[in-house]
Amino acid sequence: ENTITFRSESGNSDQAVIRIIPGALKYSSMIYLDGSRFISFRDLGLQTGSAVSNANNAISLDGTDNILIEGCRFKIYNQFDYGISISGSNEVNVDGNYFESISSKAGALTIIQSPAAEITITDNEIFGAVDWGYSTIKVSDNSGGILIDGNQVSECSRAIQHLNCEDVVISDNAIFDCN
Fold it and tell me: How far apart are CA 81 and CA 106, in angstroms?
């Protein structure tokens, strides 16, 4: 089990920025992992913002295991875009990242269909979706085994949305300037 790591050589997420292509179609992901295991992303900058569509992701994880996303800087530009989308994945750690929703309808993280997932969302700084009814962190569709802890979530309409899930622990988060 060797881990593949993608990392900024300088350690500065502002100097190693991955941007979505301007012509990306709806539902595109800049980084899409399907069934991948033992991969780390550290100290990278990731920006959505297609010129012709929305509902894109910086990173999309589908059926993955043992993924680490740490020290990255996400800027989410268009409505319905997400920084990270997690579906059917296990042992995913999202730790110490910075998320900024430029669009008032863009979210930081969405987790769907990941039962008994062992997903941790910890120690992130998140500026979220400010339009009424839009979620910054969304956990839904029978997801479970999730820890959301020690995050700072601010400037958003709905900080954390929890729909049809169980075994989700939400603790010690600082949530302010939210509806």
Answer: 5
Q: Cβ distance 98 to 124 under 8 Å?
A: yes
| pLDDT tens figures, 109-134 | 999 988 878 999 999 999 998 999 89
Strand 4-7: give its sheet, edge to edge.
Answer: 4-7, 37-42, 65-70, 90-95, 119-122, 146-149, 168-171
Nearest 5°: the CA angle 4, 139, 51 is 70
Does the model's pTM come out above 0.85? yes
Long-range CB pairs of 168-175 (<8 Å, 24+ gap) are: 168/139, 168/143, 168/144, 171/147, 173/148, 173/149
What is the token pair recorded at 54? 């929305």
Residue 98 clears pLDDT 90, i.e. is over it: yes
